[in-house]
Amino acid sequence: MKSILLSLAINTYSCVIQVAAWVIMGFATKKRKIDTWHLPERRHIPSPPKNEGLKKTIWIHASSLGEAKILVTFLTILRKKYPQVYLVLTAVTDSGVAYLKGAVQDRNATVSYLPLDTLPLMKKLITRFKIQRVWLIETELWPAMLYTCKRHAIPLGLINARMEQKSYNAYKRLKWIVSPLLAQFDTVLAQDEQYAERFIDLGVSPELVKVMGNIKGEVTIAPLTVEKRETLRKSIRITPSDLVVTVGCVHPDEISVIQRAVALCKEERLYCRWIIVPRHVKKSQLITDGFGDKATLVNDLNFSDKWSLCVVNAFGVLEKMYSLSDAAILGGTFNRVGGHNVWESVQFGVPLFFGPHYHTQEKSCKKLLENRIGFQVDNAEDLAESLIHYFKEGKEEFLQNSQRFAQKSNDNTLIVEQHI
User: Fold this and answer.
1) Residue 331 in contact with residue 312, Cβ under 8 Å?
2) How many angstroms separate the first and last alpha carbons of the chain?
3) Is 201 a member of any domain?
4) Handedness of CA 135, 314, 382, 396 (dihedral sign)
5) N or C, which terminus of the chain has less Cβ within 10 Å?
């Protein structure tokens, strides 16, 4: 009876997704909306390779840019064990797909948008590519995908698995659907004990769940060489003596905090050049307008000679901006979003300042705080004060802490290798 109800629920869900796509494609008046959702591409599967001699295909799926970066980290481990396997790599967002296409230069791989989560498309992708294994990054649980894998007896695994309280509560209410789908996972490598317990409670066998830590936080701290850093800074009109602060993943409702901190730093004669990288590129103009006439909108890294605060309107540039900076501020922590990837700046030996709301990155932020290479602030005044202290008195101490952290950072790749 349970299997019948599950089948009915998944088939209904699949039909709703399919009909919704048809309706949107047929009646949407704004082409930009359709382009943003990539419905034409997602209503089809990518083309399979011409070489039919490949014996094994693994499908790895991430959601957006942050998960795509974890996917690439995981891929380096996977390739050591399976050098000849063919890969299907998918993501949902523009930034995720663009990053994968740029980072994965592999003729034995196909990169594309995730097809719409319908039973016909999932079945077609799995059969056309002869998928034999699926790995999902963090918590990418798509019902039709999971159900199709179940029907075709394809093993599933979760890498860097996490499940926040809000998601956990939602899944518990739908446990009669979620548990049979999660029960088919043969490997769940969770970020911590709490996440592991949540997956077990929802149906994954305890012996199949391992705590491996957050591979997003397993980074090699490697600042750019002086020559490379100065070349990069020169390309965007920054001199060696300039102090540069990059504010990454900024949301529109955080503008007032950054604006106030900029003004306070200036009052205390701390003159910096500020690079603002929006979380969503499509909101670049909105964020630029929010800063008023003091902000310069930069398209595709075409910097003018004169700018003190700029908003970068381009995909996939955040790490580059962090790498040339003297300090970084993390967006999504001065509103209720809860933060974004904290390691993108830390990997370059750049100190990270973040606000009071970092619940989605709590483990990583605590790790930074414990090692004194990250700094939590409460508001604009606190942010300005912390930046002033760092630039005037704290740089040497930070450098020592950063070096110690790099030396003792545990590498979890061996745990991953043992279970893939």
Assistant:
1) no
2) 34
3) no
4) positive
5) N
Query: CA 196 to CA 418: how far, in whole Å?
Result: 18
Return the bridge partners of 309, or none: 274
Q: For 322, what's the count of Cα atoms within 13 Å in the CB-facing half-sphere?
A: 25
Check residue 229 and give its pLDDT. Answer: 92
**What pTM value is reported for the model?**
0.64
Distances (CA, A) of 324 to 130, 229, 232, 373, 378: 44, 6, 7, 17, 26
Q: How far apart are CA 397 and CA 142, in angstroms?
A: 46
Other Cβ atoms closer than 10 A to 288: 23
Domain that holds residue 106: 2-154
Please list, in sequence order, all residues whose beta carbon lies within 8 angstroms of the beta carbon of residue 296, skipping any fewer than 6 positions away: 288, 304, 307, 309, 310, 311
Q: What integer pLDDT is reported at residue 3 of this predicted model?
A: 81
Residue 386 lies in a domain: yes
For position 395, which CATH number holds? 3.40.50.2000
Domain count, the chain: 2
At 401, which helix (H) or strand (E)?
Answer: helix 395-408
Q: Tell me: the pLDDT tens digits for 142-175?
A: 999 999 999 999 999 999 999 999 999 999 998 9
Report the range of poorest mean pLDDT among 74-78, 161-165, 304-308, 384-388. Answer: 304-308
Per-residue model confidence as pLDDT tens digits over 293-327: 889 999 878 787 688 999 999 988 999 999 999 99
Asked if 187 and 157 count as a contact pair (C-beta separation under 8 A), the reply is yes
Measured CA to CA in angstroms, residue 268 lies from 220, 243, 256, 381, 391 at distances of 35, 14, 19, 12, 12
Is 189 in contact with 415 (CB distance < 8 Å)? yes
Range in 10-14, 262-266, 337-341, 354-358 with the lowest mean pLDDT: 10-14
